[in-house]
Amino acid sequence: xxxxxxxxxxxxxVYKVNKYTAxxxxxxxxxxxxxxxxxxxxxxxxxxxxxxxxGKSTHEECLQYALKSGxxxxxxxxxxxxxxxxxxxxxxxxxKMKSILLDLKQRKNLPFSIKFGIEADYLRGQEMAxxxxxxxxxxDYVIGSIHxxxxxxxxxxxxxxKYVDIDQFYIDYFQLLxxxxxxxxxxxxxxxxxxxRNLVIIHLLVYCHTTKKWPKSLPNxxxxxx
Length: 226
Fold this sequence. Notes:
Blueprint: H1 7-29, H2 32-41, E1 44-48, H3 59-69, E2 73-80, H4 94-105, E3 113-121, H5 127-134, E4 141-145, E5 148-149, E6 152-153, H6 166-182, E7 188-189, H7 198-211, H8 220-223
Parallel strand pairs: 1-2, 2-3, 3-4, 4-7
Antiparallel strand pairs: 5-6
C-alpha cells in the first residue's frame, strides 16, 4: 500500500524497508531450518514472459521449467503497451494469448496453479486507454511498470546520458512511479528499480566518473537497494 508522504519520508521509508528485509534474510541465512521452510513457501513466479512479447520460450516450455523448479504457482504476464514496441505483445496476438492462457488454466494434471496476468506500461495521461486495454483480458492480476519517460524508452533504447540531466531523470522516473502506484490500475509494481539496471546504470556510472558528481536526487540506499 502507498501513502501520501514527503519525498524525504519516502526515501527514508524505502531505506527502512530494505534494512528490515536485509535483517530478515540474514536471520534466515543463519537458521537453515527457516531458510528451507521460507524458500519452499515462496516458490512462485508471476513475472513470466513468453515469445509473445520479449521472452525466449513458449508457454509449454515455461511449464517444463516450472515443473523442474518445483514452483507452487506461476503467472504468465507478457508485456502489453499502448506504444506497441517490439518487446510487447502485438495487438494481432491478443486473442491468441487469451486462448492459450484460458486453456492452460483449465489443466488438471499440473502440480501448480496458473494465473493469467499482463505487464502493462504506465503512460502519463493515458490512464483511460490503459484501463480499456486491461479490460480486454480476463486477468487475475496486472503488473504496472515504467519503461518510458515521455516518448523515450529509457530501458531498451537508452540514449547518450552525456546530454541527460541525471538528477532530472531520476526525479521524472520516481514521479511516474508514484503516479503509477496511485492510478489504481495495477495490482503489482514491476521492477521499480529498473532505472538502475543494465545499460542505464552503466551510463549513470560513466556520468558520475566523467563529471565527478553524484545525482543529488538519488541517495545511495535507493541505487543499491535489492
